[in-house]
Design a protein that fits this description.
The protein is α/β, with parallel strands linked by helices. The protein has helices at about 15-25, 50-60, 75-80, 100-120, 135-145, 160-170, 210-215, 215-220, 225-230, 230-240, 245-260, 305-330, and strands at about 5-10, 35-40, 65-70, 85, 125-130, 155, 180, 185, 195, 200-205, 205-210, 270-275, 285-295, 295-300. It folds into 2 domains: about 5-155, Rossmann fold; about 160-325, L-2-Hydroxyisocaproate Dehydrogenase, Chain A, domain 2, CATH 3.90.110.10. It has 12 helices and 14 strands. Helix 4 (about 100-120) crosses helix 5 (about 135-145), helix 4 crosses helix 12 (about 305-330) and helix 6 packs across helix 9. The relative contact order is 0.13. The structure holds nicotinamide-adenine-dinucleotide (NAD). Nicotinamide-adenine-dinucleotide binds next to helix 1.
Length: about 325
Amino acid sequence: MAKDPVRVLVTGAAGQIGYALVPMIARGVMLGPDQPVLLHMLDIPPAAEALNGVKMELVDAAFPLLKGVVATTDAVEACTGVNVAVMVGGFPRKEGMERKDVMSKNVSIYKSQASALEAHAAPNCKVLVVANPANTNALILKEFAPSIPAKNITCLTRLDHNRALGQISERLNIQVSDVKNVIIWGNHSSTQYPDVSHATIKTPSGQKPVRELVSDDDWLKGEFIKTVQQRGAAIIKARKLSSALSAASAACDHIRDWVLGTPEGTWVSMGVYSDGSYNVPAGLIYSFPVTCRAGEWTIVQGLSVDEFSRKKMDATAEELTEEKALAYSCLS
Ligand SMILES: NC(=O)c1ccc[n+]([C@@H]2O[C@H](COP(=O)([O-])OP(=O)(O)OC[C@H]3O[C@@H](n4cnc5c(N)ncnc54)[C@H](O)[C@@H]3O)[C@@H](O)[C@H]2O)c1
């Protein structure tokens, strides 16, 4: 029997990531090849015409799984009945703008969209914040949508996770699908800590630690970390535009694994509400290694943390604590 359609909201849908993301959702990349979807697309009035163009292209693509499209500039209409919300819309940092000014714009966007989601989304709606500053936007959304369980509000660090897998596979000239269990700790920013301490590689003689096969700790602790941290800037330099297809693909990976589960023995990185695990301050949205079952994520517990990792995990937590304070100062 055909499944009932799932309503998926994409905010900022007329933007670059939106343009790459909506066809992936309509093709079943996010929720599976047998899951019909109803797409809700939100953008702001100056982008209304472009948004309508995206809607026209979705119609023209004749996606069999796509059962309807709502394209609107009204947040209430966009949020009504949605089961999954992917928040890509936000205010970008423009030349000469202070960090606080950008934060202030995004705090007010996420505050009002939190209220629209809280009042109109389907119960148990799963939220993924992509727009930067992603962790702190997600935290503001959580604060202003108190009836949505904190467990349902996450931010995207899967792109960083996938970048780390990609760098290891390039270095060893192996398939990316043979690398697993890297971790992105902390903020989706240049203080994030890409950690391979527990990562492994599938070899003909079983799983082997990444550290052993790379056999170059200087590279792993230096250039590897820096490359992953700075990859967004490198893409902008090369494309003159920020990453879009990889961000859209990572957003699909994030929701797919959250809803359908992570493979046995594999974890992924998600920005989630900290419960104090690994001595990360509670009350931040911080990226942890998680496994997912039956639509729920769980932080992987009991991983050893050496001194090098501890320092890096603390530094990115400190940045998030500062961002949180800055965001709160914008509220008052
Ligand atoms: N977390 C990650 O891994 C990651 C990766 C790449 C990009 N990003 C972030 O994703 C965001 C989107 O990137 P992009 O390249 O698509 O940008 P973009 O500028 O091309 O698109 C953003 C869209 O959001 C819309 N928008 C602005 N305010 C809005 C609001 N209040 N409600 C709804 N829509 C609104 C804009 O009109 C625009 O169409 C940026 O904040 C970017 O920094 C995050």
